[in-house]
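Lecture 7 notes: from sequence to structure.
We start with the chain below.
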Amino acid sequence: MINKITLLFTLITFCTVNAQITFEWETAIDNGDNVSETIDGITATFSGLPDIDIEDCGGCFGSSGNLVVSQGTIDGTSVTFSFSEPVIVNSILAIDGNGTNIDYTFIPSGGDNSNVIVSLNAGSAIATLNWIDVNSFTVNSSGSLFGFDNLLINDDSFSSTDNYVDDTIKLFPNPVQDILYLEGINTPTSIKVYNSLGELLISTREEKVDFSGISKGVYFIEISTNKDVQIRKIIKQ
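Predicted C-alpha cells for the same chain:
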C-alpha cells in the first residue's frame, strides 16, 4: 500500500514534471538561421523565412516584450517551431506585423492532433491549440511578417510511477474523448482526476468517469481502494 507521504511525493512530482512552461523569448538566442530558447531543459526553436530575428516591441499586440519574428518577401511561406522533446502545446500569441485581419493555419507534427485555423483580428490573436506529443508545428499564412510570443507548453514526460500499477485494473479508452471506463477494481473508495497543475477536477466512486466537459490535454487519475492507491496518466482528446 502507498503511504500518504509517498502519495504526496508522487502528486508533487506530477505537478513538477508537467508544470507549464512559457517561452517569452527573453533569454532567446539568435543563431542566424533560427532563434532558440531553453527553459527547464526543453528547447524551442523558431525557423522559417530568411529573416529570423528577436524584437522587443514594447508589449505591442498584447505581447510580454520580446517577439520572435520572421520577415519574408514571398507571400504564402511558413515558419516552424520545433522542440527538443515531445511536448504538450497549449497556446501561442500569433501576430501579423502589418496589423491586418488574416488567417494563420497551425499544423502539428507528432501525436494524433488536428490542424487549427486562427483568425487574427487587427493583427493578433491567441491560438488555443491543445496538442499532445508534439515534436514541432508549422504556421502557414498569406502574410509576410510573422510574429509570435507567449508559447505555452507542458513537458510531456511522465514521472516513474509504474511501480504502483496493478495490471488487473484496466482503464479504457486511453486516450479518451468522453467516458473513461475502469475495470478490475474491487469497491473503489474514491476516484479523482487532477490536471497537470495538481488541481482536483473530478471526484467520484463510479467505475466510469465523464471527461466530456474537460479540455484536451494530459490528466492524472488517482484510484483509491481498500487495498492501495494508484495513479495513472490519462490523455483527453
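Points to note: The chain is about 5% helix and 55% strand. Residues 1-9, 158-165 have pLDDT under 50 and may be disordered.
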